Amino acid sequence: MPRSIIDAVQGTLDFLILKALSWDDMHGYAIARWIQETSEDELQIEEGTLYPALHRMEDRGWIEAAWGLSENNRRAKYYRLTVAGRRELRERTANWERYARAVSLILQAKPAGGASA
Amino acid sequence: MSDPKSWRRHLRAWGPDPDADVAEEVAFHLENRIQDFIRRGMTREDAQREARRVFGDVDHISSELRAMGRKRLKRARRASYIDELQQDIRQALRSFARRPGMTAIVVLTLGLGLGVTTAVYALFDRVVLNPLPVRAPEELISVHERSSPTSTHAPLTYPMFKALREQARSVTGIAGYATQNVALHAGAFAQHGAGVFASANYFAVLGIQPLVGRLFQPSDEGPAGSAPYVVLSEDLWEQAYGRRPDIVGQTLAVNNHPRTIIGVAPGWFRGTDLRKLPAVWLPLNEIQAIANEGIFSLDIFDTYAFRWVTAFARLAPGKTAEAANSELVRIHALVAQQSSDRETVKRESGKEVLETGSLGEAAAGREREALLRFIRILVGVVAICLLIGSVNVALLLLLRSRERLRDFAVRRAIGAGSGRLFRQVAVENVMLASFSVLIGLLLAVWTIQALSAFALPSGIQIRDLGLSLDGGVLLFAIGLSAIAALGFGIAPTLIAARGDVASSLRSSRHGGQRRYWRTGSPLIAVQVALTLVLVVGALLFIRSLRQGLNVDLRFDPRDIASVSVGLERQGYKQAEAPALFRRITEELRRNPVFGHTALATHVPVSDGDMGLPLSFVDEPRRRVRVGEMNAVTPDYLELIGARLTRGRIIGSSDAESSEQVAVINEAAARAMSPDRDVIGRQFRIMGMGRPYTIIGVVADAHYTSLTTIEPYVFVPLQQNLGLGAMAELQLVARGRGTASATINALKQVVRSVDPRLPVFDDTDVAGRIDRMLMPQRFGSLLLGLLAALALLISAVGIYAISAYEVVLRRRELGIRAALGADMRALSDVVLARNGLGIAVGCVAGMVLAFFATAATRSFLFGIRPDEPVSYAVSAVLLAVTAVMASWLPSRRAAQTDPATIMRE
Q: What does the angle CA B142 – CA B145 – CA B149 come to, to the nearest 5 degrees?
């Protein structure tokens, strides 16, 4: 996997986590798996970096953590989106969409001079 | 996972160990990843390696996570602590607001107790703990003479003072002073005040710095007239000069002698004698010029015959009080030896020994013991008041905690630790304590102001003490409130909360009822008992004051005044005395200011504790102790108004050469000769000497004590010069003007007879009797107020408990009433329960009062501390009050319509 993609993912890791948790409360491993699977294995993150991000987000009050039982009946730390986290997700999604739209507009642009058409 | 109930369970399970959490979280991740890889067909070893590679640097990330976790935990703890504290405070305020009456009672009750206790502590601190608020007061010793172990302290002669000062090496300096009342004039300002004539090192030895200008320095101790200076007290600076800053150099007239002001002493220094608040300080050498003009012809600075310098010293560094004492005693003995060679000083000189003692203890004066006893009573009384207040607080909080029992049980069941519950109670009590302290301090200030109108035994005016709520006293008040509020507040709550959760939840609203009664009833008993002690004490004091005010002295003390002179000290011999007495008597008679005049060895009400044993010549074995033998001129019996019941009174015919005679009072007649007429019988003092023939009997009167009448014997002065007349002779007069005018006129007489004769002491008989009653007045007022307060507090407490009990049982009572039960009978249940506590309290209180009031014995006039009427009245008063307080709320309940209750 090219290095540049990983970097891009790092910057938006928080965003991805917020999105992952918007479906359900998850433990760290499930989040990693969700990101991989949902992106059809295009986004391969260094899994260890997930945890400092989660803890930072917890400190910021976007998510909260609690111990629960995993699918295979093991103790696992579950993360859950808070109200603040949900708001953050909404804002970031809107920003991202504006940004993505702008970028795709530029990428789809006709050569100069025909722009007014 | 999104089920809120299970979520809550997770929250509770979240343990406070961040390191373990990190390890577990990382391990969980790796394990899942390995399992995934294995499922995809990897070997276990490969899967493990691959999982760690995909994860990244496990150790680094873990340590980063651990650091974050620890930080978060710390933050969370602090946040939750503050949060909980705010919650507790809000909850406390809410509960105060829900029961404003009860909160007010708790706060006021505690506040009152704290207020009076703090005020009395301020007094105790000033008089007993810290009588000399100067630098290192424990180094200061008083230096005085004493002629026998039982006699009172005597000042030093000036030559002796000087000799000690020059020779003593174990002290850094011996300072001396004498206090005289002086008249102060500055412009329109005129006032009498105590003038302290002080040696130049007086302030230096005490370690006092001037507030303004300077204090005395060595050059101020030159010959008389060389230092016409005066140092003001801060009070005088304020009163006479309005604190004007240019005070130094102004002139103050002291007994009409203009003196230049050199400085002001700080107001916290109030002299070395609690009884006399100095208004000004003057150089010691000025005393003759200013205060004793013309009275002494002898040079008081050069004679060993006149003791007038009150001396004190500061121990030299490293010297003990014992070392200083032995050195001073040695010097004193040597100097006394030399002085008797140089000057013929009669009587004591050889016998008087030097003594040193704590200057702080000397500051309270001769009657320090009586003072301490009195203050101890005060402390005891206010302590009881505080205790009653505290018990009330305990009672009321016990009720509240009962109300909260279910609340507590629920909270504990959902996991609140007992530490958390304890903290909530503590917060509530700290808040109550803080409110109480505020009220208490306010009250203490008022109490101190009120106390200022009174004097303590030994003549200390409380207003002269300058009491204030300074550091130590404030600390005392706050500490006390903490103990009272926390100790009496938290304990009952914990007792109530101790019960097991399940039974409390199972039971209805009346959960914990039995536990309450186990603790509640004894508290009522304690309160009743303590209150009873105060009420008994107050009644004793009040009745004693009434006795004192109404005591029929059986003589008229009005306008009687006297001054005393010491003939022997001035070198008079017994042979010269009769002529001198005649001259004095003539002078007295000539003065139109006086009504009756006389000479005597004692004036009433003297603490006549002579206890001389007399026995009849024909009955030598039978001895009777008399309270006093007063050697008087014939006019004395008429002056004092003694009413003759048998025989004749002393006349001028009873001269030195004729038969020795005596007039006794009825009490003496009863004691000496219950069965035979005493007239004509002869007795001897201690079975020795010339016999006295009894010539008359007079009616009893309170010559020696306000409380009792003792056997009393009058003998002619002319025949009894050996009975103390040479040591101290009283010139007595019933004046036509004020007592002080009479005293001044008497002093004039002394001066005109012999200018060399110093006046030792003066007595205003009516004033003396009044002062003897001062502790009674003070005690009655204070105890009366406090007892009334205690009664009110107890009544409120008992009322509150009963009212609460009734409220709790309204439904039950309502149902019973609806079923036809007699409501009145129901209300008796409440009464019966409190009744036991009240009865036990009354009995215990009587026993307690019996022991507690024994301490008041020496302050009670005409009444014994175990006198039954006071006890009976108090017990009835208390029982009625307590029963009423229990009965009223239940009666109110009984009058309510059962239907109303049922609808609630």
A: 105
Closest CA to B71 of A78, A58, A85, A47: A58
Q: Tens digit of pLDDT for each residue in B264-306?
A: 999 889 888 888 889 999 999 888 777 754 434 456 787 776 7
CB B561 within 8 A of CB B764: yes
B1: closest CA of chain A, how far (Å): 7
Q: Which helix (H) or strand (E) holds B612?
A: strand B612-616
Instruction: Tell me which chain A residue has its CA closest to the CA of residue B31.
Output: A29
User: What ipTM score was computed for the predicted complex, to two decimals?
Assistant: 0.84
Enter the tokens of residue A82: 């808070």
> What is the pLDDT at residue A7?
46
For A41, A45, B46, B48, the CA distances from B38, given in Å and listed in that order, are: 18, 20, 9, 9
Q: Which residue has the higher pLDDT, B692 or B506?
A: B692
Which residue in A has a C-alpha nearest to residue B20's C-alpha?
Answer: A77
Whole-number Cα distances in Å, B379 to B364, B422, B463, B800: 17, 33, 19, 29
Residue B664 main-chain phi, psi, to 5 deg: -120, 165
Q: Which two tokens stand for residue B597?
A: 């005049």
Is B10 in the A-facing interface, judged by CB distances under 8 Å? yes
What residue in B sits closest to A57 (Cα-Cα)?
B68
- What pTM was computed for the model? 0.66
Q: What gap in Å lies between CA A79 and CA A14, rounded to an integer?
A: 13
- CB under 8 Å to B632, separation ≥6 — which residues? B598, B599, B600, B601, B650, B714, B715, B716, B717
- Length of chain A as a residue count: 117
Q: Tell me the C-alpha distance between B315 and B351, whole Å.
A: 26
Cis peptide bond N-terminal to A9, omega within 30: no
Summarize the confidence of residues B891-898 as an average pLDDT.
67
Structural domains of chain A, ranges and CATH numbers in brackets = 3-107 (1.10.10.10)
State how far the Cα of B638 lies from the Cα of B632, in Å rounded to an integer: 11
Return the residue in B29, B34, B57 with the most chain A beta carbons within 10 A, the one to mutate for interface testing.
Answer: B29
- B75 in helix, strand or coil? helix
| Residues of B with Cβ-Cβ distance to A77 under 8 angstroms | 21, 24-25, 28
Which residues on chain A are in Cβ contact (under 8 Å) with B26? Answer: 51
Largest CA distance in chain A: 64
pLDDT tens readout for residues B391-413: 877 777 777 766 666 666 777 77
Spatial neighbors of B802 by CB under 8 A, at least 6 apart, are B830, B831, B834, B885, B886, B887, B888, B889, B890
The residue ranges of every structural domain in chain B are 14-91, 99-131+370-511, 137-363, 515-551+765-904, 567-757
Burial group, residue A13, by CB count within 10 angstroms (0-12, 13-18, 19+): buried
Element housing B336 (H / E)? helix B321-342
- B192-213 pLDDT, tens digit per residue, is 788 999 999 999 999 999 999 9
| Residues B335 and B168 sit within 8 Å (Cβ to Cβ) | no
**Residue B391's closest CA among B848, B874, B790?**
B790
Encode pLDDT of B53-88 as tens digits: 888 888 999 999 889 888 888 888 888 888 888 888
Quote the CA–CA distance of B808 and B403 in Å, as a whole number.
9
Residues 6 or more apart whose Cβ sits within 8 Å of residue A16: A9, A35, A43
Tokens standing for B126?
A: 């000033």
Question: For residues B692 and B682, is the Cβ–Cβ distance under 8 A?
Answer: yes
Rounded to whole angstroms, the Cα distance separating B538 from B668 reads 35
User: Beta strands B688-698 and B661-665: pairing type?
Assistant: parallel
